[in-house]
Amino acid sequence: MIKVCDRHRRRRRKARLAAVFRAPNVNFPFKLKSKKCTTPHRLSQPPPQPTRGPYRNNAVITSTTVLHLLTKRRTIQLLPINRHRNRNPPHPPPHPLHHPPPPPAPSSTSSPCTPTPPTPSPLRSPSPSPLPTLHIFTSPSSPTAPSPNPTCLKHQTALRLASLPHTTTNSTNHASPTGALPFLLPPTSSPLLPAALLPVGAGQILSYATKAGHPLPARPAHPKAKVYASLIDDAIRPAWLHAVYLTPANAHLPTRLYLAPATSSWLVQTYQGISLRRAASEQLKIAAPGEWWM
C-alpha cells in the first residue's frame, strides 16, 4: 500500500510539473543545490547538456532537467540569486610589463662619487715643446737627418739658413692640416693647441721665421740663380720622381722612406704605394709631357 501511494504521489507530482513547465526552455531565477541520491535512476536517456544562460552559473534550466532530477530522487533546494554580486566583476591584475618602472635609486647610496685621474694623451700625440717642431719625412731613428723628400729638404734647409731654433720629427701626410708635408708646429706648453697656435703650412714657414726674428740672410742675387731654379724644377725633379716611384728597380724605396715609418700594415703600405705611383705619374704628365720617361 505504501508503495502504491508513493507511486501515485510521484505521478501526480510529475503531472503538476509537466503542466507548469510546458515551454521547452524555462529560465528560473534561482540556483539548484542538490544532494545526489545513491539509488540508480530508471531513465534511459541522459539529461540534455545545459546551455549558457544569464544567471550565476550561466545555465538554462529546462522542464526535462527538473523531471530528470526529481526522477533520480534528488533533494532540490532553491537558492535566490544575488543579482548585484557580479554586476562589477573584478578586473584581472595588470601584467607586470605594464607597470611603470620604479624611480632609480640615488647613485650615491650604492657607489660614492670618486674623482678619477685625467686620461693621458695618446703616445703619438704632439708633446709640449718650447721650440717649433718641423714635421717632415725622415727616419724615426734619426729625425735630424736630411729628409729624402725634396720639398721637406728645402724647408729644412731654409730654417737652418735662417738660424731658427727648431726640432724635426717624423710625420705623414695624414697628420698635416693641408694634407701634405712639411708643416711647422709652434712652441706649446700644453698638448691642447689654442687658436693662435695652429700648425703653419709649407707656404707660410718662411713668413713665420721672419716674424719670429729669424729672416733669411740677405745675399746678393746670383746671375745664374734663376737658371739653377728652373733646372731643378723642370729637369731634376721629374727625373727624381721617375727614379724613385716609377723605376721597377727602386720599387722598395717608397716603402722604406715613406710608408714603413708611418705604418706596419702591409695592406696599408700596398694601397699607399699605389697612390704614390699614381700621383707621381700625374705630376710627370703635367711637368714634362712627351718626355722619354712617358
From TrEMBL:
Residues annotated as domain Thioredoxin-like fold: 150-250
Biased composition (Pro residues): 89-106, 114-131
Superkingdom per UniProt: Eukaryota
Biased composition (Low complexity): 132-142
Pfam families referenced in this protein's UniProt entry, alphabetically: GST_N_4
Segments for region (Disordered): 33-57, 80-152
Protein name: Thioredoxin-like fold domain-containing protein
